[in-house]
Prior knowledge:
The structure holds 2 protein chains of 2 kinds. By secondary structure, chain A is an all-alpha fold. Chain A has helices spanning 7-17, 21-37, 42-51, 55-66, 71-82, 84-96, 101-109, 113-125, 131-160, 172-181, 188-203, 211-234.
Amino acid sequence: MPSSIPKRSFWLGARDGAPFTLIVGPFAAVFGVVASEAGLTLAQTFGFSALVIAGAAQIAAVQLMVDAAPMVVVVATALAVNLRMAMYSASLAPHLGAAPLWQRAIIAYLNVDQSFALASAKYEAAPEWPVPDKIAYFFGIMVPISITWYGMTVLGAVLGQRIPDWLALDFAVPIAFLAVIAPALKTLAHVAAAFTSVVLALALGGMPFGTGLLVAGFVAMCVGAAVETAMERRA
Amino acid sequence: MSFSTGEIWGIIVLLGIGTFLIRFSFLGLIGDRELPPFALKLLRYTPVAVIPGLVAPLVIWPEATGGAPDPARLIAAAVTLLAGVRTRSFMVAILAGAVTFYLLSALG
């Protein structure tokens, strides 16, 4: 940690990030279990969590690998799940754009749902905060979260290999995904997007190489945005 | 797993690089130019647009039953969804779904 990082803001971030370990920990463990069930080694499982840090995309990738989808489709679908992060990046840019490139690169690596939600709320509330404090706060948030993320992935992977078959762990994937998505169904537009996605994915299930899901996802995204626009006009 | 070790690492690395570039995009390369409003709207829906489509076949045609719909899985999925919508909590939703699934499977 360089000395230019303001300590107070850093520890403030760590304190605010700590409660989120309760969400991140179980999710990381679920990924660890799912990945080891799918036959990934401990190193590969940890590699996912260390290089990607995006649980939903990681579980999606592993599920498509189990389904033997082509590599391109595995990567494209998992990246589609992560596209929302371009929005996070865009909304952090006005606050952190003045920071040195290496700091922005680390922020980008650590820019996950939880750190984005906490940091953007803080920056909106205190726009006068100096950039080094904003950076320190962001790094602080991710200390408890990233340690929990890496650690619980490993724990899940190790435990996953010892869980007996009768526990039907195949069901962990849909349950984990539904638990992630349900709280995100906040508006009619979100519900419409989700519904479109389900209907089209089932209807297009026969398309080659798992491309049906990509088509379903793209159309559902457009439906969500269109419904939001329609609701705004009506309001 | 039908992938070789090299292919698995290939997927991990490509996904890592791709995800990083998505996160770095505006912060690092594009600067603080504003996204067009419609692009922001589209991006907001990426998780709810992709994940439900991925889950649906897993719930309706589970591989563990050879693709036959299974009442325990269907009901547990519905309970997870409802619990998540009501409580907005990942933990409550996943626990509710798991408990329902094991109870129904034990009774089944």
